[in-house]
From TrEMBL, chains A, B:
CDD domains referenced in this protein's UniProt entry, alphabetically: AAK_AKii-LysC-BS, ACT_AK-LysC-DapG-like_2, ACT_AKii-LysC-BS-like_1
Originating organism: Nocardioides marinquilinus
Descriptive protein name: Aspartokinase
Entry keyword set: Amino-acid biosynthesis, ATP-binding, Diaminopimelate biosynthesis, Kinase, Lysine biosynthesis, Nucleotide-binding, Transferase
Molecular-function GO term, any one: kinase activity
Keyword Amino-acid biosynthesis: yes
PANTHER family: ASPARTATE KINASE, ASPARTOKINASE
Role: Catalyzes the phosphorylation of the beta-carboxyl group of aspartic acid with ATP to yield 4-phospho-L-aspartate, which is involved in the branched biosynthetic pathway leading to the biosynthesis of amino acids lysine, threonine, isoleucine and methionine.
One family name in Pfam for this protein: AA_kinase
Enzyme class at the top of the EC tree: transferase
Top-rank taxon: Bacteria
All copies of domain ACT, residue ranges: 274-359
E.C. designation(s): 2.7.2.4
Length: 429, 429
């Protein structure tokens, strides 16, 4: 049997008892005959506590030292997990990101993994040890500085290790049972998916499903590493994320044809919408607007430009962006008004985005129409529309998000026959 | 001006405010024109908290993982100190023991420093940065594992860095004003020493003065690094520990001739006494007893063997040892009784040791007599006696320790004219 990489987040490592439970879980996998490599996050609130200390010491701490500070969190949890495993009669070796060969660029706080050179990990596996690696951290290639990977970093560490070790699977343990057809807090009849494709998972993550981070799924897709998203609180199978879903999965899911087309309904309440009203419809005006936003380091999501009214030759440009960037974006645009000569700016942060995602919709022309009529029947007005090959997203009023999600979920026959009691929470780092 | 190495212990780094105070102190030294390298311990109770977590997870955690765990403590404090310095407008770079080139053997929990290769520290100094190094930790030479140095480790880190960097001085910041002629809690008129020799400091440390650890003083003596022991809560000069004390120091101290002979009076209440009664006075019997104790890894302190009584040809052997080793030693000896054929074992842990220390006593024959008569006049009975070139130690009843210390301190005119209000506490790690 091959190598299994597992990742446990902070909520699975909240205290000594939780750590012991994780250790038993790891040992079970080892007993099945697998070699096991584990990426861990910092325990529960450790990172927040460390950042609070930093804020007490300096209002603007240097990024290098913030990374040194935060990296202590995984050092603590990895040692404790290794101890708990040893207490069960198995041997474990813990390694920092640097020791495990997680080589990154030098962008403190949001470093990208450049390479993984897991020589010490491979050696420890060869000696029969279970290996525990600090997630979320690495060492910069040229300067040998301690770096952290930013949000979703521990998941990415796990997938990167799985790729470098040619692992069978990367198991991401979390506090939910897997990936659902919708947030069960909104749609109690939401169904756990047995499998989704990388592409679907990417769209789900981009559209607000917080279960896996975009970059970790991108990494897994690039190296074709199957991810098994599952609960650390149960032994149920979770959701497999992989390149293609074969017929077996479809039959196992025992779903209708529609369900094979659609993976799920995602929603996102973290965005705001800005409309630039009355932009002269000339070559280069839109470019100037988006250049200014890029310079302010703002990531835009949906962008819509209406055709210009023939009478005035003016057009409106709307886009969505993270609410946290709203103030910065409005300032950047306001300072551009005299140059571009637009009429005014509208800002709306009472919006929500509802997205329908499924690789099967490529070849099923009726999906868009069904989606829109479901939302219409629920009495919800659509503000913006944006589509990709395997996704349709609409912006609606924030208060209408739940109704739109439920209506869509039901229209595409995604409802499960039994109600599952799960919490659809966010991931840690 | 040259390099100054400073060391701050856990009590000087208890919280954010303490860390900011330490940062100001470091910056003051930098402003004077020195290059500054700082070794830090973990904050206040961090190490205890981490060890408690370890105990919750496993009753007998592997030493390797305990070192990984504990090393997180200095990683936190070093980053916070660097941040606080940056907040004062200076740049700092923090390095782990491994990054700073603190190379050790592979004995987890009590590693010895083999070499210091401070390439990154030197480079950072050259770039104008203040350098913060994690005390107490290193990396093993062959296996590249994280190690910790055991008790007194951070002091040793500081002295080792000072030696490797050819520093002017190694300043050890603590919660007392320096080295005193006796514990001021027992002798309120105890005087701070301006200077002591390495040898005197070694004897003081070995005899219960907890201000500096033996190994750190040994290291400083080997590389001839002056240590300045001083308070992090005041700007007073502390005590200089160095190879020889010149006339200037004597004049500065404005002390009597006696005070130049005697450095101080130390005491120790952490030992117990074992007497092996009725040992046959034959060649090799004592050796068998001490071989058994050595095998049980027990460090003995004073050893006394009386001449044997002519009638019986039996002798008594007494020795002192750490109380914590008492049970182990008694078991080891009991299992030896039938072979050696001694009569019985006596165990006494209600003892204390009082020691008079001073390099000058070598050439002053009257010191021993004066010491004994001072103790006698205080009505204290002497149980055991042991001497070195620059030290006389006696074992007395535990309750008589204070009286013996005061009487000795006074007999040798060590009393200061003004009473200093200080706390004579232990060192951290």
């Amino acid at each position: 049997m091959g190598i299994v990489v597992q990742k446990y987040g902070g909520s699975s490592l909240a205290d000594a008892d939780a750590i012991k439970r994780v250790a038993r879980r790891i040992v079970e996998t080892k007993k099945e005959g697998h070699d096991v490599v584990v990426a861990v996050s910092a325990m529960g609130d450790t990172t927040d506590e460390l950042l609070e200390l930093a804020a007490d010491v300096s209002p603007l701490p240097p990024a290098r030292e913030l990374d040194v500070l935060q990296s202590a969190g995984e050092r603590i949890s990895m040692a404790l997990v290794a101890m708990a495993i040893s207490d069960l009669g198995f041997t474990a070796r813990s390694f920092t990101g640097s020791q495990a060969g997680v080589i990154t660029d030098a962008q403190h706080g949001k470093a990208k993994i450049i390479d993984v050179t897991p020589g010490r990990v491979v050696q420890a596996i060869g000696e029969g040890h279970i290996v525990i690696v600090a997630g979320f951290q690495g060492v910069s290639q040229d300067t040998k500085e301690i770096t952290t990977l930013g949000r979703g970093g521990s998941d990415t560490t796990a997938v990167a290790l799985a790729a470098a070790l040619d692992a069978e699977v990367c198991e991401i343990y979390t506090d939910v049972d897997g990936v659902f057809t919708a947030d069960p807090r909104i749609v109690p009849s939401a169904r756990k998916l047995d499998a989704v494709t990388y592409e679907e998972m990417l769209e789900l993550a981009a559209c607000g499903a917080k279960i896996l981070h975009l970059r970790c799924v991108e990494y897994a897709r690039r190296y074709d590493i199957p991810i098994h998203v599952r609960s650390s609180f149960s032994h149920l199978d979770g959701t497999i994320v992989r390149g293609s879903i074969d017929d077996d999965d479809h039959q196992q899911q025992e779903t209708s044809m529609e369900a094979a087309i659609i993976a799920g309904v995602a929603h996102d309440r973290s965005e705001a919408k800005i409309t630039v009203v009355g932009v002269p419809d000339k070559v280069g005006e839109a470019a100037r607007i988006f250049a200014a936003l890029a310079e302010a380091q703002i990531n835009l999501d949906m962008i819509v430009q209406n055709v210009s009214a023939a009478a005035t030759n003016l057009t409106d440009i709307s886009f969505t962006l993270p609410r946290s960037d709203g103030q910065t974006a409005m300032s950047a645009l306001a300072s551009l008004q005299s140059q571009v000569g637009f009429d005014s700016l509208l800002y709306d942060d009472k919006i929500g985005k509802v997205s329908l995602i499924g690789a099967g919709m490529r070849s099923h022309p009726g999906v868009t129409a069904k989606f829109f009529s479901a939302i219409a029947e629920a009495g919800v007005n659509i503000g913006m529309i944006s589509t990709s090959e395997i996704r349709i997203s609409v912006v609606v009023d924030e208060v209408d998000v739940d109704a739109a999600v439920r209506a869509t979920h039901s229209a595409f026959d995604l409802d499960s026959t039994e109600v599952e009691a799960v919490v659809y929470g966010g991931t840690g780092r």
